[in-house]
Amino acid sequence: MQAKDSAPSETWSERIRAFASGPKPIGFFLFLLIAVTIIPAIGVSVVLLQRNNEAQREVVTTLAEAMAGSIAEAVDRELSGMSTTLRVLSTTPSLASGDLKDFYDRARLALAGSGSYLRVLDENYRLLINTGVPFGEPLTPLNEPETARAALKGGVTITSGVFFGKLDGKWSFKVVKPYFPENGPPRILVMTRNADTLVDVLSQQMLRGGWNASVVDKNNIVVASSFMSSDVGKTFFLNLDGTGIQHEAEPAEGREGGTYTAIIGESGVSGWKAVVWASTKTIEEPMRHSLRMLLAGGLLVIAIGAFAAWLLGRQIAGPVRRLARDARRLGAGEPVHAIEYPIAEVATVSSALAEAALDREQAENEIRLLMREVAHRSKNQLTVVSSMAKQTARSSRTFAGFQDAFQKRLHGLARSTDLLIAGGAAGVELRELLAAQVDPFRPDSAERLKMTGPKFRLANQPAQTVGLAVHELATNASKYGAFSTSTGRLEISWKVKDDILTLTWREHVSKGRRRNVRRRGFGTEIIERMVGGTLDAEISRVFHRDGLECVFRIPVDRLVPDSLKNPSPTGEVD
Known about the structure:
The protein is an alpha+beta fold. 50% of the residues lie in helices and 18% in strands. The protein contains 12 helices and 18 strands.
């Protein structure tokens, strides 16, 4: 059983290794292209999203900090208002004169509808009046007398913490102000107010997105809260340390929950704290949600891209296989025809293969022609060398003279071949080309050769064609024409008119050396096919009684190099 189970695993491992080391299908590279395009974009999006979230958190934190400060200022205004009311009531004459009934009536009228009530204590902290009950009824002792003692002892107005009022059964706080009349014992004015009146201060703030606000006293007891009213009178659930922004604030011992972000503003009047807080999880939830949506969208896009890559790969693989088949046919020398493919690049390659097949066929034809030309030129070169040897021998008196002259003429023949190579992209001067082709055949007498015409530069390919034709003419002249006798002459002239180069080859020979005009050799075929067919030249050949006249009329635009336009030839006559 183990052997049977291991065989498939080995097969799959071999397939994986073959896929990793061998060529990959085009769909694989298309998928990679999509992946390398999308994955960095997702990464950049994550970074930008994170930075945007951080910027938003900074903005929200700043707003929450301003909100905490605003709540602290509102609490200060409420407590300052209570202190101001106590200060105004302390100036009432009936309080100084001891007319408690009159003072009771004035204080009750002043505090009507404010949710506050006033109590007056003597120097022994006994209640004298309480606007919360009818005047004259028995009064209960004061809750939390420590604040009254501290205010009387310090002679300053003090705000207490939150406490549970026995009179109305609600959580309350009080502001205590000592009063020292000019005559008589001191009095203590205590204004008590329900804590739930501060909820209106919190409700005026725009608390959204999981943010809450609480007011806590100096003992960290909740005075008012926008979260749960049942928290009033209880210890605030977060461990607060000073003021400002506290990130990752943890709940107090025994309280459950994660970390929180708390912004704390302190009241300058009472020492209370305005706390704006929110769960870290709640704050980060939009970021997590955005990341989940981004990753889900990215995976969806990658899946769609993989499917599209598979489809596109199939569309491309078929034409590529057909191109490979055409390439093999091209290598085998078979004809290849262009096919219209839906992919422009593949269609271009198909057209290129078809053109290459046509060029190959033409090149093969040209090679056959050139092979014939090589054989013909070799024979002509041997004829040239033989003619040079004969002419040199006739004009040389000694063997040493013959050897020197013959060697010079061989060097001239070699230079005529090198001239076409030396011209390079700049082309070849027509005069130099003519001289290089004719010089190996010309006799010693300068009067027997005359060249006249303006400066004119040929491109390399036309120069080779023209040089080939002149070489044929010069070879024939050495065999049958002007250079075959001791008295023959050759005149070469050219001119440019109406964008046509007219090149005239005129031989002058004795009547006894007239050429057989009916004979048509390979050289004549080369001239007509190469010059006439390649350069669109008009060629006329006339055999006069005293020699051959051959005229070439060639369009200038088929001759000049690409770097030269509208040449302005100047006359230069030898």
